[in-house]
Fold this sequence. Notes:
Helices cover 47% and strands 0% of the residues. The chain contains 5 helices and no strands. The protein has helices at residues 5-22, 39-48, 50-54, 57-60, 78-81.
Amino acid sequence: MKITKRDLLLIAIGVAIVVFLLRAPPETTHPVPYDDTHRAYYDMARDEGKKAAERFCEDCHNQDMMPLPEGHPPKYRCLFCHKLKRD
């Protein structure tokens, strides 16, 4: 079996992708705590989906109760960055 230029190109692209993924920075976003306050939202995210659970984040995480840090991305996609802990 002969290795062609096309094969070498495919291998090079594959190696480049693996190197790119290995050099990715570690995840720094805090996960959603699995505590009494958030447990109901874990169940809701599992049963109804993340978007259903995200609707309630702003009830507590707002300017009055728990303000978000300056420069925080839009609030409507909380579970896009903040992952749910695995059981």
